[in-house]
From TrEMBL:
UniProt gene name: Gstz1
Segment forming the signal sequence: none
Lineage summary: Eukaryota, Metazoa, Chordata, Craniata, Vertebrata
Main localization of the protein described in the UniProt heading: cytoplasm
Catalytic activity as recorded in UniProt: 4-maleylacetoacetate = 4-fumarylacetoacetate; RX + glutathione = an S-substituted glutathione + a halide anion + H(+)
Protein's UniProt name: Maleylacetoacetate isomerase
Keyword Isomerase: yes
Amino acid sequence: PILYSYFRSSCSWRVRIALALKGIAYDLVPVNLIKDGGQQFSAEFKALNPMQQVPALQIDGITLSQSLAIINYLEETHPNPRLLPQDPKKRAQVRMIADHIASGIQPLQNLSVLKQMGEKKMEWAQHCITSGFQALEQILQHTAGRYCVGDEVSMADLCLVPQVANAERFKVDMRPYPIITRINKALLELEAFKISHPSRQPDTPADLRA
């Protein structure tokens, strides 16, 4: 497999965690979203992913984009360890939380949107993350065990950790979100989350390396 990734992309990080958890070896091709006006806009990359976004994963003779679609494919082709619970209610809760983050928070504060916000980008990012986290904290009161849904790592957790990193980068006050903070801390102790961390990627700038 070949993963087209950017060290700081939270969507790419989700996929890196999934690959690490499932023990799938892959080659990483960095796509710098800033350099050269954004390498994702090159004709070569557009041919690979018409949406001109990372991640993109070439695997089993196909090219997949969209992080949750990629993770679902990995789940179906490499079922162990599982990232979706067997219980239908818990599975629905995992998907709900993953969608809440991947559709309801992250796209509103990603690079392309922030460019449009100009000087107000920090304020806008904080607003989007804060409103999303207020809802998420409430949801987790009913679903959380050690992790987002019960005591098993799931697709929801793969979305949570990169989003908390975004929140910290945009200086969001995390004090109102004790459950999010607790789960994030527990997840960051797991090896798959450590090795996939933005500070440990081949394209991480020297000053941001762990």
